[in-house]
Amino acid sequence: MTDKTVSLPEERRHGSFIKNNLRNYGMLMSLIAIMLFFQVMTSGTLLQPLNLTNLVLQNSYIVIMALGMLLVIVTGHIDLSVGSVAGFVGAVAALLMVTYKVDYTLAFLICLAVGAAIGAAQGYWVAYFKIPSFIVTLAGMLVFKGLALAVLQGQSLGPFPPTFQKLSSGFIPELLPEAGTLHPTSMLIGAVLALGLVYASAKSRAREVSHGIEVEPYAFFLGKSVVLAFAVLYFTYLIATYRGLPNVLVIMSVLIALYGFVTRRTVIGRQIYAVGGNAKAAGLSGIKTERLTFFTFVNMGVLAALAGLVFAARLNTATPKAGLGFELDVIAACFIGGASAYGGVGRVGGAVVGAMIMGVMNNGMSILGIGIDYQQVIKGLVLLGAVCIDVYNQRR
Fold it and tell me: Which CATH code fits 47-170+267-395?
């Protein structure tokens, strides 16, 4: 009787935690389930080292743009122009490096500045003129798609300098003696990353406990830490048995860590969520809502430019159709990852998981030979389902 009385509150606490965090953990469980499904259906092809490397390279630009799109969505806006901006910046990069022989470093910085200028132009209309972001960025999508065609004169332009190509197709240099097909430097980085993630999670939990904030039950925390460390180590091992860690994966990891820190540990991060939750209340509390909205679009422009450079480097050419449909995958990644269409809700980890869900689905369906027509249908239904869940949670 006594045991039952003592254990009941603990069971209720676990049940309450699962219910309150079902959205976050549900997406992660969905990713695992989708990966297992395609791993079985493709007879083990999905998790082969070569395919995993291709999966990273194919979805790197989606993850990069999803980080910026998350902040835009959290503030209660949307950006439909990211695909066109990425394609336009790729065209500018080709014009600079291929036609005018500009050094790749200078061209890289110019392209990021172009992305920031585009974001500033669109953000200005949205933040200070209060024009709906849907309209502004829809216009931007058409404008920069047309400009990309004009810059390239309707033709593909390439190839890029070999050094620039390494942005997307290069791998980190091997600093330790290779052990057969295993790249130990990549494996060491993966081990350090796994330990760092577990340590950071433990420190964050301890900090929240010290401030009296309700935290996840210890059993959940321990299980999550073990699964996370194992997943990172296993993924790194598979990648390390091919050619090691791709350069773009390192760039993605740094950006994910940076944006995770900004959104969770800085004043500006908390202000972004406050603006998305209630812009009027945030303004009355002293937050400069217009300036914050403006900078989220500038940030989106820079990340769209970086994604455009990564995509152009991967193709080794700039094409008029580059970036076509990117906005669908990027926006879907954020909504599938738990961002709310109403603003104020969303996490960096969720956006990354959402991007990986979209990437695994694209890759798995391609391996199975499913046509692009049905792939679009399935992705559209998944996006609709994610938004329906969001609406249901809002009404509840």
Answer: 1.10.3470
pLDDT of the residue at 31: 83
Q: What is the DSSP letter of 337?
A: T
Q: Which two tokens stand for residue 211?
A: 């401030």
Q: How far apart are CA 295 and CA 312, in angstroms?
A: 26
Report the alpha-carbon distance of residue 179 to residue 138 in Å, rounded. 52
Q: Which pLDDT score, from 0 to 100, does residue 8 have? A: 43
157 three-class SS: strand
- Please provide the DSSP assignment of 290-321 as one string: HHHHHHHHHHHHHHHHHHHHHHHHHHTSB-TT
Burial class, 190, CB count within 10 angstroms (exposed 0-12 / middle 13-18 / buried 19+): buried
Q: What is the per-residue pLDDT for 349?
A: 87
CA distance 132 to 125: 8
So what's the pLDDT on residue 279? 86
Entry pTM: 0.90
Q: Domain coordinates of the chain in residue numbers?
A: 47-170+267-395, 172-245
Q: From CA 192, how far away is CA 174, in angstroms rounded?
A: 16
Residues facing 309 on adjacent strands? none
Residue ranges in the chain whose pLDDT is less than 50: 1-8
Residue at 184: amino acid letter: P
Q: What whole-number distance in Å separates Cα of residue 360 and Cα of residue 362?
A: 5
> Any idea which residue has 């743009």 for tokens?
65
SS3 category, 179: strand
